[in-house]
Amino acid sequence: MFTLYHLPVCPFSRKVRIALGEKKCAFEPVVELPWEERPEFTALNPGGDVPVLVVNQGGAVLADSMAICEYLDETCPEPPLFGADPLQRAEVRRLVGWFDGRFNVEVTLNLVGEKLIKRQMGHPGGPDSRAIRIGYARIRDHLDYVGWLTERRRWLAGDSFSLADIAAAAHLSSVDYIGDVPWDDYPAVKDWYARIKSRPSLRPLLADHVPGVAPPRHYADLDF
Ligand SMILES: N[C@@H](CCC(=O)N[C@@H](CS)C(=O)NCC(=O)O)C(=O)O
């Protein structure tokens, strides 16, 4: 049994929630607003960011979504999320790095960070419209790339569902919470995301509700 400190719209937290769900690992979720710097949380993770996974048996504390997912894959091997051989694992890691790096900086931070996280934080300045314009432009480049992959592969990294699909879905679902994914312009990406959305591991994310910010109706709809 685990305890997961997470922020519902944080893509890194979402990645770990989906991975725990895929591996059918029971966990107690605790919503953490990292900017509040609660002393009890800072004592667990002096780095101050979410997600943090506490392994209740033994009391180990793990931070960083990739480190957590690697730990889960080693300790709960079924189903494997990193691919069956070294080449597949390299491709899974490349794509996870792509989404957690470029997609996060170019899209998630510009859209979810500006429109939702700043509001949750009570940031005095409000959203930066220039950053939002960049996010709207960049998401189209990324959806082109995801579309290119989904037209050639069953799942993003190859034949098997992997952490690459989880990382991509974690970011896209965060952006979808604010209704900023132009799904109808990218039918192949929409088909891939519909398959992900119907997995039981996504259900808890589709039930998320950030106080004061309701998601669009299609967010939780499996036939969106
Ligand atoms: N590399 C980390 C990044 C985690 C991260 O950036 N978390 C953000 C929320 S999405 C955070 O906790 N930021 C600290 C803050 O807002 O104070 C991971 O993969 O877990």
UniProtKB/TrEMBL annotation:
Coiled coil: none annotated. Residues 85-222 form the GST C-terminal domain. CDD domains: GST_C_family (cd00299), GST_N_family (cd00570). InterPro entries: Glutathione-S-Trfase_C-like (IPR010987), Glutathione-S-Trfase_C_sf (IPR036282), Glutathione_S-Trfase (IPR040079), Glutathione_S-Trfase_N (IPR004045), GST_C (IPR004046), GST_Omega/HSP26 (IPR050983), Thioredoxin-like_sf (IPR036249). GO terms for cellular component: cytoplasm. Residues 1-80 form the GST N-terminal domain. PANTHER family: GLUTATHIONE S-TRANSFERASE OMEGA, PTHR43968. This is Putative GST-like protein YibF.
